[in-house]
Design a protein that fits this description.
- Among the domains are: 119 residues, no CATH class; 92 residues, no CATH class; 100 residues, Immunoglobulin-like (Sandwich), CATH 2.60.40.3080.
- The strands form eight sheets. A six-stranded antiparallel sheet has the order 1-2-6-5-4-3. The protein has a six-stranded mixed sheet with strand order 11-18-19-17-15-14, with helices on one face.
- The protein has 688 residues and is α+β, with helices and mostly antiparallel strands.
- The chain is built from 14 helices and 30 strands.
């Protein structure tokens, strides 16, 4: 039975997962213009296109009438990028109606050589909404400020907000309204779920937070009032002495070292919040400093926070190949020892400035400033990842999408701790400063919810909880339980990495590095703003397929791990038609097409094993003949995760199976590139 036939047979079940009452236009079998161009059509939003069947950019132009877009709708290209792992190209679009953006209506294309391989997302179909406003932006702002009801706002501060050592005002903190169609209720992308609204991003000093407020542009009603700071329930930390604190020396009259990481890649500035009433003033005079760069326990809270954010930056840079939260090295400013009286949270603070990102670490005890600071590796990585999410999927921070936001941050926090402590990491979150831990990725149910609700963090996705206890939280302070329900994907990540049995379904682990690669690829390139758990499953499977091949062991285990979390089936590859995804990193020379096609066919016969490996790697050149190898002048290079060549080999013509000694390489993820006159292919492997 073909995969496409199976998906058609399961159509009703899948539409039930995503909350749609009817089949969407792009996934309707009667829409043969689209349906016949796809070899797999998933109602959860994914379309796998036949080779050379859809040019990039044509779907919403040439074929607009077959997508559900109405006359007053358009898809706007927001950004385009090439991923750093497989080198496929990606485009991200947002839908506009009457020239106004629709929240959650977004689409992505993954393509190579101008043809789409995979596309996914949601179209708001047959929109007929009005664009008329009754409330102006100024009138709506009065309503929004009354809803926030903060004691003090930044624009009320008597001190101007200056950039470092300059006379220019850094940011304008007064809220500006954005007119949009706000997505309401369960985030289902459909006309009935939208309302025309003014959105405001309101910063407040007291209390210290960022709030998103949506005001109906026609009635003046507050539609959403949401704390936008991504937070955790953290209480205290103390790491010992470290010798690689990244600081900046300024000579002359200052002659001091400041908490400003500036090693050429990082841009992190940290200060003691409680030492300065005006938190917005970031001149060097307000940064903690030291005469000889031997800080000992001076500025203990600030140095601890500065260091763990430095490590989080490095993990994303060297493991995930991303420079800063935005991917382009945008600076981070850290509020350490935040004396706001809460004593519970570490936060990523969105939208505060167009020039910098912000992270805060709170203090909980005035009497003992050497405790209660959540400045740990996993917490810093967690908050740093929230910033990355903002620039990529921009997951809605409530219900299922918010739970997935928290889970992706937990996974990145775990990976940061593993990166920093290669021999002493664990699967718990926040265990270094609070007992019991905040969350447990291996055994989520071992952590009860600290609210008196009488149940534990869930380990799987049961349907009957969606409308009852599983998605609630006292006084809705956790945006629908985002810090509770994140544990389902956390458990999936553990099962995929290490293996195990849950709900009588067995998973054979593929290792942490491969699991992280699948998760991170999906997180950056496929996940959307209104992501649900079933969609997260579909996108993880797609990522495994792209990275490791259709019907690969990794794809099957990704399916199994989700099945063990009660989402989807075992995915045993009932359609075994081979799919060769030719990404930019893997592409062959385009000189003589006949010769290239032959080389491309033979390149698929190359195998590299075992993977992971400890001592030796074997490269089987498969279909390549003695004459092929003689004409190719084969060369093999091994690159580490940063792109540095660590080993070079030039095989002899008579070798078919080549032994590569990797015993001396440190543990980690590597790339083996095999090149020749008409050949250029890459295999990734893990050195244990």
């Amino acid at each position: 039975m073909k995969t496409k036939t199976i998906y058609l047979w399961l159509l009703t079940a899948f539409t039930g997962y995503s909350g749609f009452a009817q089949v969407r236009v792009l996934h309707d079998p009667s829409n043969t213009t689209i349906y016949n161009r796809t070899w797999e059509n998933d109602p959860l939003g994914l379309l796998w296109w036949y080779p050379d069947s859809m040019h990039v950019g044509q779907l919403f132009t040439t074929y607009k009438d077959f997508t559900g877009l109405a006359a007053n709708d358009s898809m706007h290209l927001v950004r385009e990028w090439t991923d750093s792992f497989v080198c496929f190209h990606h485009r991200y679009y947002k839908q506009y109606h009457n020239g106004i953006v629709l929240e959650g209506a977004e689409y992505r294309e993954l393509f190579n050589d101008d043809y789409v391989i995979l596309s996914n997302g949601w179209v708001a179909e047959n929109m007929t909404l009005s664009a008329d406003t009754i409330y102006s932006s100024a009138q709506a702002l009065e309503v929004a400020l009354a809803a926030v009801n903060a004691e003090q706002y930044p624009w009320e501060d008597t001190l101007p907000v200056f950039d470092d050592d300059s006379n220019e005002i850094l940011i304008d903190t007064y809220p500006k309204g954005e007119l949009l169609y706000a997505l309401m209720d369960d985030d289902t992308v459909a006309e009935s779920k939208y309302k025309l609204a003014w959105k405001f991003i309101i910063l407040s000093d007291i209390p210290f937070k960022t709030t998103y407020v949506y005001v109906d542009a026609q009635t003046g009603e507050v539609l959403k009032n949401q704390n936008a700071s991504r937070q955790g329930d953290f209480t205290h930390i103390y790491y010992g002495l470290r010798t690689d604190l990244d600081t900046k020396y300024i000579g002359g009259l200052r002659d001091r070292h400041y908490l400003h990481a500036n090693n050429g890649t990082r841009d992190i500035r940290t200060k003691d919040y409680h030492t300065k009433n005006n938190y917005s003033h970031w001149s060097y005079s307000s940064l903690p400093n030291d005469l000889d760069d031997h800080w000992d326990t001076d500025h203990w809270g600030a140095t601890s926070a500065h260091y763990v954010v430095q490590v989080a930056w490095d993990m994303f840079l060297y493991v995930a190949k991303r420079n800063g939260m935005d991917g382009y090295g945008k600076g981070v400013r850290v509020y350490a020892d935040l004396d706001d009286g809460s004593g519970q949270n570490a936060s990523w603070i969105p939208e505060k400035s167009s020039n910098y990102e912000y992270i805060s670490f709170s203090r909980g005890s005035r009497s003992n400033p050497m405790t209660w600071l959540p400045t740990t590796y996993d917490v810093a990585g967690h908050e740093f990842a929230h910033g990355v999410t903002h620039y990529e999927s921009n997951l809605g921070y409530a219900q299922e999408s918010g739970a997935l936001d928290e889970s992706f941050s937990d996974i990145c926090g775990f990976m940061t701790e593993r990166y920093a402590q290669s021999g002493s990491w664990d699967w718990t979150i926040g265990e270094d400063f609070v007992c019991p831990q905040i969350r447990d990725m291996q055994l989520p149910s071992s952590k009860t919810i600290p609210t008196g609700l009488g149940f534990s963090h869930p380990t799987y996705y049961p349907d009957w909880y969606q409308s009852s206890d599983w998605w609630t939280y006292p006084d809705n302070s956790d945006n629908g339980g985002v810090h509770i329900n994140c544990s389902v994907q956390n458990r999936w990540f553990y099962l995929l990495s290490m293996g195990g049995i849950q709900l009588s379904k067995q998973v054979m682990g593929i290792g942490i590095s491969k699991s992280a690669l699948i998760t991170y690829y999906s997180y950056l390139n496929l996940v959307g703003q209104t992501e649900t758990y079933p969609q997260a499953r579909a996108h993880a499977v797609a990522a495994a397929r792209i990275l490791f091949g259709k019907c690969s062991y990794e794809e099957r285990q990704t399916c199994r791990a989700w099945a063990a979390c009660n989402i989807g089936n075992y995915c045993e590859c009932l359609d075994t038609t081979a799919q060769f995804f030719d990404g930019g990193c893997f592409s062959l020379s385009r000189g003589n097409m006949t010769q290239v096609d032959e080389m491309k066919f033979k390149a698929k016969s190359i195998t590299v094993y075992p993977n992971p490996t400890s001592n030796e790697l074997f490269v089987n050149l498969g279909e390549f003949t003695f004459r092929d190898k003689q004409n190719l002048s084969l060369r093999m290079e091994i690159y580490d995760i940063s792109g540095k060549i660590v080993k070079v080999l030039e095989p002899k013509f008579d070798q078919t199976i080549i032994t590569v000694n990797v015993n001396g390489l440190p543990a980690g993820l590597y790339s083996l590139r095999i090149t020749g006159n008409e050949l250029n292919c890459v295999f990734r492997f893990i050195k244990q």
